[in-house]
Amino acid sequence: MTFPAFLPNVAAGSGVLLAFCAFALVSSITPGPNNTMVLASGVNFGIARTVPHLLGISIGFSVMVALVGLGLGSIFTAWPWMWDLLRVVATAYLVWLAWKLATAGGVQDREVARPMSFLRAAAFQWVNPKAWVMAVGACSTYVLDANIWVNAMAMACLFAVINLPSVATWAVFGAALRSLLARPRVLRVFNVTMALMLLASLLPILGAHPHG
């Protein structure tokens, strides 16, 4: 079945479709590790250099949604210890990212520093607890089509369309603050604040479980 062929089936359940889109929007645009890092990237590097980061988040997460929709999310039911392992890995990685952000230099350093690449941003989704909660929560709550393959692909495509502008909003906001944070000392305070927010974004997520 081709992609256009299943669009009428998806549209037929307009109530479920709208509910899913609302879930995708709210979960994508609310604070979390991705949006915190994108905000900081917008400030430190501007919009153009943050684009690979944005695309990595959107495409990487959409791939995750597709795979979870095809059954990958069941690993947390079959092996509950996997969620505990994910939390340990995610905590260690985010602590490292927060440290790197908090110790970033001033204006001179940020001009030669590298923003997160497409591949790193895409790979980060697999150790991002919020991404797992979003993906498993969406795939276990909403059914857009009875065909599991069609359902997974539809969810992945819709998330890509909704997620990209949602996270880009944070980058645009960050870029708008660049002139206000041009002084090295002010930029340092901002980066430390973002590092603390990055760590704080883990607290409500680490206590959650993708299957409730």
What does this protein structure show overall?
By secondary structure, the chain is mainly alpha-helical. The protein has one domain. The protein is 78% helix and 0% strand. It is built from eleven helices and no strands. It has helices at residues 3-12, 14-29, 33-69, 75-78, 81-102, 107-112, 118-124, 129-141, 148-176, 184-200, 203-206. The chain is globular, with a radius of gyration of 18 Å. It starts with a helix and ends in a 6-residue tail after the last helix. The relative contact order is 0.23. Residues 1-12 and 106-112 have low confidence and may be disordered.
Give a topology summary.
Layout: H1 3-12, H2 14-29, H3 33-69, H4 75-78, H5 81-102, H6 107-112, H7 118-124, H8 129-141, H9 148-176, H10 184-200, H11 203-206
Q: Between the first and last Cα atoms, what is the distance in angstroms? A: 33 Å
Coarse structural class:
mainly alpha
Helix proportion range: over 70%
Stretches where pLDDT is under 50 for at least 5 consecutive residues are 1-12, 106-112
The rounded Rg comes to 18 Å
Provide the number of structural domains.
Answer: 1
SS elements, strand count: 0
Overall shape: globular
Major sheet summary line: none
Mean pLDDT figure: 83
Element-level helix/strand string: HHHHHHHHHHH
> Total helix count?
11
- Work out the strand percent: under 5%
